[in-house]
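Try this one yourself first.
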């Protein structure tokens, strides 16, 4: 639990302590008839689909769920109907999940009968769904109300100014949800905040996630609240802070302006305003995720600070000197700033410091030993995501005895370059709850002593160089919630002993090259949410122990040696599942069993032996964003129903699919990757792809039977980074508007993040290459090979300066290579072979420093082959065969003074097929020399004879 959550819990505890009502001390007290009738009227206006208010029957309303009465008088003083809906705090919620949750929300209308509850002081309706209705104006008549919470409840419209009449109100929570799952129509609107200034008793106010257009009115109102203790303006679109000449809310103890866009501008010469110095009672200050970058000593005055979060800003080392005087500081988050190791020693005076987070800073080299005294006092140390940290682990980690006290509970060193063995001394940190060294350079074996860490909850060692066998003592870590040892060099067997006491496990990720050896009737002690087992031998049968995993959200068993059908019971196991990856196995049969897994977000069944048709019922998966069925034996037509899904990724390549691309796919306007290559599809190239699918980043239709011209509409997809139309029957010219592909010319990266199941294969550099995961994000490819294209290579292609792979081979292109082709500075592979191109090879190609493959064979190029830079390494003569007029050292053919080929040189052998025609032409040439000479000589003698007869013989005698 972080300190923000701790302080919030303390605050809630204090609030409830102030309004401490129970139902047990005075069991004989019952509520009044007036209060009971008012509550029933209130209930009758609500929508309660799951009978959360089923206890609201009978005369004694003090026994109703969510109702609290005064212990002495029996008057209803508290209504708490909030719903524990953690989902609404998430950034993305699948619609089906939300729909399932909405039925648990209270909704409907709020009856004014609440006004008759004269003693009501506490009202909490948060995390419900009131379908954008306005907060009732009659709330302003609840005169005794001291606590009001309607956060994230789906209210909309303008906030009524009548709330300003609640003169006794101490706590007001109107905050929203980051996920915006309730839609923009359910967001509050504000025409004025002046009513807040009338809440003179207010101690805490939460306006988080408000979209504030003009904040000046709000700040002026807040400055009139001298009793305010807690102010939350997180994520409110603030761009500046006010500059008060006098600040009145100096009692503030908690101040949160996280996740705004506060930055310097011409009106604000100092980012952190001077009035911060007056907030001397501040204990919790969150300035995270803004644009603060000044170094003024405003923090020196905040001597009461215990929690400070300045993450995601631009503070430098000068900030540390300001913090060095904050002796009460317990929690310090410096993530994402510009802090160096050399000045961290300035924190040595902070003897109370327990949590130090230094992710994403400028920490470099080995950890200085001078910092040991600071680190030894910490319970949480986060050095992760500092990729330039190197050397051995800090000595206090390797040898805890170097610390007077052993306080360490959480250690984060992931994504660093610590190059060290996994220390035996790690097990001596008896209080450890988190070890995270993901993506580092740790090596050696995990010591068996790790089983002593009885408090360990998270063990994350993925992507290191650890080896040997997994110690079975891990199975004794009864508090372990997450085990991730994937992407290491472990070997051997993982057995039931490794999971013996892991009954709290929620995430399990195992490494490659292991063998999972459990009995067929094994009953795991855990119920996990995530399983990631890649290249671990699990099969040959589909593991039966998965049937017990009833809360699975992610299942990855790729390359698990499973030879089986997809079992029918898997649809039950996918009740909560969002991700299913069973790729690279030997699964057989059909996939219709998945049609009932309605929450699936991503499916990857590629590289199996699946057969039959793609079932139309996949349209039931209303949350499906990624579908990968590539490299199977599926047949038939692509079902039209796929066009009803919200797909972003569709991979159906390398099957036996036939027919046309269904026009319904034009409904997939959010589609980013469409791969239908290597099938038997036959259709005229659809123009609607360019017109409708304008979010495409990857389009592969290669090795099918598409015909017709490449439509100009395709050029409307400016986001296209990878286009492969090779191996079809396309004709016509290459569209000059391909220069519109800005992704190939401006370094634009792919859009949304990666999902499971992304594999793309392409024939480049003369061989088939497979690209996986993040590799795809970096590629820029244009492949139009093996078609019937004619005309010249458009000069406009030279504008695609980020292009890495260009293949135009095996067409009927003519003309010369554009001279500016060397402008494609990132080009790695160029194939123009088997065309009718002519002219010289541009010298600009010699400047392509990344070029590792170039094939210009079987054209009609002439002149010398350019030399210099990268071209010197491309010394394979086969890249130039079939061009008899080329010359140069590379093909061992000298060039004449004018740069042309010396025809007396012997043509290199190996040009068998294409040089046959040249040989025939030479034979006919030499065969015609003799008769031609004879005819010409006889003609010359005949002319002399005629001239003599005409009296001009003397001329020839003189000439002789």
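Now uncover the answer:
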């Amino acid at each position: 639990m972080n300190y923000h959550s701790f302080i919030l819990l303390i605050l809630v505890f204090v609030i409830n302590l102030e309004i401490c009502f129970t139902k047990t001390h005075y069991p004989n007290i019952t509520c009044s008839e007036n209060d009971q009738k008012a509550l029933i009227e209130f209930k009758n206006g609500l929508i309660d689909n799951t009978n959360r208010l089923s206890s609201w029957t009978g005369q004694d309303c003090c026994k109703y769920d969510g109702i609290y009465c005064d212990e002495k008088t029996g008057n209803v003083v508290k209504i708490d109907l909030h719903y524990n809906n953690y989902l609404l705090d998430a950034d993305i919620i699948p619609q089906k999940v939300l729909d399932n949750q909405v039925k648990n929300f209270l909704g409907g209308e709020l009856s004014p009968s609440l006004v008759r509850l004269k003693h009501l002081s506490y009202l909490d309706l948060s995390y419900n769904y009131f379908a954008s209705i306005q907060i009732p104006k009659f709330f302003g008549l609840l005169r005794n109300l001291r606590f009001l919470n309607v956060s994230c409840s789906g209210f909309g419209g303008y906030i009524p100014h009548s709330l300003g009449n609640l003169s006794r109100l101490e706590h007001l929570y109107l905050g929203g949800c980051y996920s915006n799952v309730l839609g923009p129509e359910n967001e509050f609107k504000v025409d004025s905040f002046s009513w807040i200034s009338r809440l003179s008793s207010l101690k805490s106010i939460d306006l988080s996630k408000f979209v504030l257009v003009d904040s000046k009115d709000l700040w002026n109102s807040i400055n009139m609240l001298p009793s305010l203790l807690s102010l939350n303006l997180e994520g409110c679109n603030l761009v500046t802070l006010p500059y008060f000449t006098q600040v009145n809310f100096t009692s503030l103890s908690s101040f949160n302006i996280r996740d705004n866009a506060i930055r310097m501008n011409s009106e604000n010469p100092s980012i952190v305003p001077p009035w911060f110095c007056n907030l001397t009672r501040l204990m919790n200050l969150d300035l995270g995720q803004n644009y603060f970058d000044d170094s003024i000593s405003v923090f020196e005055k905040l001597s009461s600070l215990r929690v400070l979060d300045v993450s995601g800003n631009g503070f430098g080392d000068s900030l540390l000197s300001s913090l060095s005087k904050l002796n009460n500081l317990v929690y310090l988050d410096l993530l994402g700033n510009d802090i160096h190791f050399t000045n961290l020693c300035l924190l040595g005076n902070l003897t109370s410091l327990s949590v130090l987070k230094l992710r994403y800073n400028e920490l470099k080299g080995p950890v200085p030993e001078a910092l040991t005294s600071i680190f030894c006092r910490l319970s949480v140390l986060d050095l992760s995501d500092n990729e330039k940290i190197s050397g051995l682990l800090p000595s206090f980690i390797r040898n805890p005895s170097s610390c007077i006290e052993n306080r360490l509970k959480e250690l984060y060193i992931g994504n660093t370059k610590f190059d060290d063995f996994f220390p035996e001394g790690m097990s001596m940190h008896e209080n450890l709850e988190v070890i995270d060294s993901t993506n580092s350079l740790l090596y050696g074996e995990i010591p068996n002593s790790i089983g002593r860490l009885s408090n360990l909850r998270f063990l994350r060692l993925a992507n290191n160089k650890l080896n040997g066998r997994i110690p079975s003592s891990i199975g004794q870590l009864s508090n372990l919630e997450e085990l991730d040892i994937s992407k290491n060099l472990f070997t051997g067997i993982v057995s039931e002993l490794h999971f013996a006491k892991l009954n709290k496990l929620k995430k399990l990720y195992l490494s490659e090259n292991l063998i999972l050896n459990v009995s067929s009737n094994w009953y795991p002690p855990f119920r996990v949410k995530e399983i990631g087992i890649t290249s671990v031998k699990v099969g040959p049968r589909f593991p039966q122990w998965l049937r017990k995993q009833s809360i699975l959200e992610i299942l990855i068993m790729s390359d698990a040696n499973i030879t089986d059908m997809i079992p029918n019971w898997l649809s039950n196991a996918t009740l909560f599942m969002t991700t299913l990856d069973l790729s690279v196995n030997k699964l057989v049969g059909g996939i219709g069993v998945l049609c009932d897994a309605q929450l699936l977000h991503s499916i990857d069944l590629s590289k199996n032996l699946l057969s039959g048709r793609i079932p139309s019922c996949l349209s039931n998966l209303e949350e499906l964003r990624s579908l990968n069925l590539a490299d199977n034996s599926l047949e038939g037509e692509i079902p039209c129903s796929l066009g009803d899904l919200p797909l972003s990724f569709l991979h159906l390549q390398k099957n036996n699919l036939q027919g046309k691309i269904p026009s319904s796919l034009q409904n997939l306007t959010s589609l980013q990757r469409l791969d239908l290559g290597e099938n038997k599809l036959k259709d005229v190239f659809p123009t609607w792809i360019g017109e409708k699918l304008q979010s495409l980043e990857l389009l592969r239709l290669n090795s099918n039977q598409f015909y017709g011209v490449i439509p100009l509409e395709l050029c409307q997809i400016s986001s296209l980074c990878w286009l492969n139309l090779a191996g079809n029957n396309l004709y016509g010219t290459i569209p000059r508007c391909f220069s519109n592909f800005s992704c190939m010319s401006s370094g634009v990266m792919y859009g949304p993040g990666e999902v499971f199941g992304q594999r793309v294969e392409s024939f480049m550099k003369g061989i088939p290459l497979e690209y996986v995961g993040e590799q795809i994000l970096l590629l820029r490819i244009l492949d139009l090979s093996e078609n019937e294209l004619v005309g010249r290579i458009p000069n406009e292609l030279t504008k695609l300066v980020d292009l890495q792979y260009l293949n135009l081979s095996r067409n009927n292109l003519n003309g010369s290579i554009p001279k500016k082709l060397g402008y494609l500075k990132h080009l790695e592979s160029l194939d123009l072979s088997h065309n009718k191109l002519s002219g010289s090879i541009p010298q600009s190609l010699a400047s392509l420093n990344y070029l590792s493959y170039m094939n210009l064979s079987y054209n009609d190029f002439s002149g010398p082959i350019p030399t210099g830079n990268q071209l010197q390494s491309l010394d394979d003569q086969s890249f130039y065969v079939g061009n008899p007029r080329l010359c140069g050292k590379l093909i061992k053919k000298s060039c004449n003074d004018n740069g042309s080929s010396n025809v007396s040189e012997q043509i290199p052998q190996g040009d068998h097929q294409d040089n046959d025609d040249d040989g025939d032409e030479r034979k006919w040439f030499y065969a015609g020399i003799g008769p031609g000479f004879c005819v010409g000589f006889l003609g010359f003698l005949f002319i002399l004879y005629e001239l003599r007869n005409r009296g001009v013989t003397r001329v020839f005698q003189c000439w002789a």
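Discussion: The chain has twelve helices and 56 strands. The radius of gyration is 38 Å.
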